[in-house]
Design a protein that fits this description.
Layout (H helix, E strand, L loop, with lengths): L1 H16 L6 H24 L3 H23 L3
Helix pairs in contact: 2-3
């Protein structure tokens, strides 16, 4: 249990630190994927499907949406 309490904050710090050098466009794509994954999992669970597949589909659609927004908005 003590190892988990030490490892969890370290993993969180490395994960959040990895996003600091991302461009605005990359951050949009990542945000779109994360929001899409959450929404897809929730919709699949409500509809009685498998939330894993909903999350995968939602993440793909959200990431694609962020990418297309960047292309049309001239983002970097």
């Amino acid at each position: 249990m003590k190892k988990l309490l030490v490892a969890l904050p370290l993993v969180a710090a490395f994960t959040l630190g990895g996003c600091s050098n991302m461009s605005t466009g990359q951050q949009r794509e990542l945000s779109g994927g994360a929001i899409g994954a959450g929404a897809g999992a929730a919709i699949a669970a409500i509809a009685g499907g498998n939330p894993i597949w909903g999350a995968i589909g939602g993440a793909a659609v959200g990431t694609l949406g962020g990418f297309l927004y960047n292309k049309n908005a001239g983002g970097n």
